[in-house]
Amino acid sequence: MRRFIIFLLSILTLLPITADNKTSNSAEARRVFDRVYEKVFGPNGCTLHYDVNIIGLYKTSGTIWYKEKKQRFTDERVDTWNDGTTAYMVYRKKKTVEVHNANSDKKDKYSGKFKFELDDFDYSIKREGEDYVITLKQRKGAKGTIKEARVTLEPKRLSPTHIKIKVAFIWANISISNFKTGGISDSMFVFPRSRYAKGYKFVDKR
């Protein structure tokens, strides 16, 4: 889920609003989509603050950093470090550190529910009031779990302010702030083991 959110945000901050019809709109959006995908998960990385609400059933807020296959995020209940090989999930209240393979869906209750492929969607963009809205709709026969995504952009800088993601019949709402790209050090993703050497239980789930 978090990877998908960051992917959308990074694309949309650079997306030019120039298409004059449906065909050119879609083609331009996909071209930029592919180009920025490589930039976002490349050597410079990105960061943002998010507030998530899944129809009132699940709410969280936090900050996330991403760089290539590496990830670091923190919210009200957990701190995580993912160096691309191993993921460490620190549950502060339980005083527990779970150790997972970096790509395992088991490390996050919701990550396995938000699956997508780049060819799953048709892309479009339109103006709504003072904002731009990007819509991604899943194509017929696509296997991903993301059915639709809508992203609201502030027009002057094309900064993302809100995302809605539809999985089955459920909508997840994500409010975005403090989005930045570049300047992410590799040290951000190194698990500080000494910080949790005392008072925390390590559980290896690899």
Describe this structure in words.
Helices cover 15% and strands 45% of the residues. By secondary structure, it is mainly β. The two termini are 21 Å apart. The protein is elongated and about 60 Å long. A 12-stranded mixed sheet has the order 7-8-9-10-11-1-2-3-4-5-6-12. The protein has 2 helices and 12 strands; from the N terminus they run ααββββββββββββ.
Short description:
With 206 residues, the chain is mostly beta strands. Helices cover 15% and strands 45% of the residues.
Main features:
206 residues, elongated, 12 strands, mainly beta, single chain, 12-stranded mixed sheet, 15% helix
Write the layout of secondary structure elements.
Layout: H1 2-12, H2 22-40, E1 46-54, E2 58-67, E3 70-75, E4 78-82, E5 86-91, E6 96-101, E7 121-128, E8 131-138, E9 146-154, E10 159-167, E11 170-181, E12 201-204
Parallel strand pairs: 6-12
Antiparallel strand pairs: 1-2, 1-11, 2-3, 3-4, 4-5, 5-6, 7-8, 8-9, 9-10, 10-11
Q: Strand sequence of the main sheet, in spatial order?
A: 7-8-9-10-11-1-2-3-4-5-6-12
**From N to C, what is the helix and strand string?**
HHEEEEEEEEEEEE
Mean pLDDT: 81
Shape: elongated
E-strand count: 12
Helicity, in percent? 10-25%
Task: Give the N-terminus to C-terminus distance in angstroms.
Answer: 21 Å
Coarse structural class: mainly beta
β-sheet strand percentage = 35-45%
Mind summarizing the main beta sheet?
12 strands, mixed
Give me the number of helical elements.
2
Low-pLDDT residue spans = none
Radius of gyration: 18 Å
For this structure, the quaternary state is single chain
